[in-house]
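Colleagues,

For the teaching module next term, I've prepared a clean inverse folding example: a structure given as tokens, and then the sequence designed for it. I'd like students to try predicting residues themselves before seeing the answer, so please don't circulate the second half yet.
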């Protein structure tokens, strides 16, 4: 079965590295530091614009033993290039990321894939570090980037590296009531936008809860087009 474009957009833009979609009202596990970097690049081989993403996230165990189920979505237009993880600075043995089709109610979707693996935090003070490298072959799949996760977030940065030939609009959504700062640094024909959020609560998973784009702080990336000597592309 082929997954509709709208479903893929929801899966890939609303879910990042998280823990099994579980709602965690306690603070045994928190995300102490997180960073998501997006860089727009020109791929000469395909004569197209791509987005390189670097994800990093540190999970801190505050009290009792817990196992995090790390999940990352991708599809035909989004490629996971690399996965790395450690616990207290050491590579855990016997843990291998699983890459498979995404399944909903026993239906597999040919365009939606999932990478997942467990990350056991055995004791108080343990830190599980997760790193993903991902490529958006089609920038349209980069839509909504959220500050909230399925665990409380102590600090999270979202960074956009935008070359002068790329025309985008970063729309700030649901920022009211949150501690989020923004800086802009321009150098070497590139604008770097850095958003920093602190003390963001965990997402709530309830049937009556509105969709994440209605209630959680996020950035909506609207791409207008790209132009350089070699190419002109309109999204």
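(Answer key — instructors only)
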């Amino acid at each position: 079965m082929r997954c509709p474009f709208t479903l893929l957009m929801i899966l890939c833009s609303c879910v990042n590295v998280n823990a099994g979609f579980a709602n965690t009202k306690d603070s045994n596990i928190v995300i102490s530091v997180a960073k998501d970097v997006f860089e727009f690049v020109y791929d000469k081989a395909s004569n197209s614009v791509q987005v390189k993403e670097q994800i990093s996230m540190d999970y801190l165990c505050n009290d009792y033993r817990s196992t995090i189920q790390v999940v990352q979505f991708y599809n035909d237009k989004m490629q996971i290039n690399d996965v790395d993880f450690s616990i207290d600075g050491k590579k855990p043995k016997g843990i291998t990321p699983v890459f498979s089709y995404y399944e909903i109610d026993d239906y597999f979707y040919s365009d939606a894939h999932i990478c997942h693996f467990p990350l056991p935090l055995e004791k108080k003070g343990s830190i599980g570090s997760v790193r993903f490298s991902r490529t958006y072959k089609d920038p349209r799949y980069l839509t909504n980037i959220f500050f909230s996760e399925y665990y409380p977030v102590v600090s999270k940065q979202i960074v956009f590296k935008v070359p002068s030939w790329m025309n985008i609009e970063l729309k700030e959504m649901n920022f009211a009531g949150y501690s989020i700062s923004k800086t802009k640094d321009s150098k070497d024909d590139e604008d770097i936008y850095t958003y920093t959020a602190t003390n963001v609560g965990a997402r709530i998973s309830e049937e009556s809860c509105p969709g994440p784009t209605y209630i959680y702080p996020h950035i909506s990336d609207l791409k207008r087009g790209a132009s350089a000597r070699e190419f002109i592309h309109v999204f």
